Amino acid sequence: MSISCLTTTHPLQSLTVKLHKTNQDKDILMYPDISPESEHQRWSVRKDAGNVTLVLKDIRLSDDGLYDCQVYKDQDCLNVIRFNLKVKECKILDTVHPTPGSSVLLPCSEHPLQNRTEQVTWKVVNGRQSTDISQYAPPNKPSSSTEKLLKPLYER
Questions:
Q1: pLDDT tens digits, residue range 14-43?
Q2: Which domain of life, per UniProt (predicted)?
Q3: Per-residue pLDDT tens over the stretch 51-105
Q4: Residue 45 and residue 54: Cα distance in Å, rounded?
Q5: pTM of the predicted model as reported, rounded to 2 decimal places
Q6: Burial of 69 by CB count in 10 Å (0-12 exposed, 13-18 middle, 19+ buried)?
Q7: 3-state secondary structure of 50
Q8: What is the DSSP string of 51-95?
Q9: What burial letters (b/e) apply to 11-24, b meaning 16+ CB within 10 Å?
């Protein structure tokens, strides 16, 4: 997840970025990091094309809350962004282990009395890394001229 905090021409090294979780009155991140203990290893700051952006990896239910992102140049506050992060608990279905080259039916059910469809996401999981099924590319293997091109995994 990423949140844009400011668009600026200032170099990132000249800025101070502070992330504060207001509903817990707790500083989550200070860039550059001046604290000896880094409890916020999942949060980081980057600047791409002039945008100062907060990045959160490995989102957890405990991340839910109201945040302030403050960006300073010396003592001047350049911008404050307040955002409310809502983390939705996802239901993870049982893992499916298909035989290579075979077809598999991925189960997905809805409650018949609901008037809306929940968003469904399929991921290919390899160890601790997961890839959206529409972005998945199988590991490279030596190709031969007789090998036909396969459709994307989600179409197969």
A1: 999 999 999 888 888 888 876 545 445 788
A2: Eukaryota
A3: 999 998 888 888 999 999 999 999 999 999 999 999 887 777 777 777 877 877 7
A4: 5
A5: 0.57
A6: buried
A7: coil
A8: EEEEEE-S--GGG-EEEEEEEEETTEEEEEEEEEE--PPPPPPPP
A9: eeeebbbbbbbeee
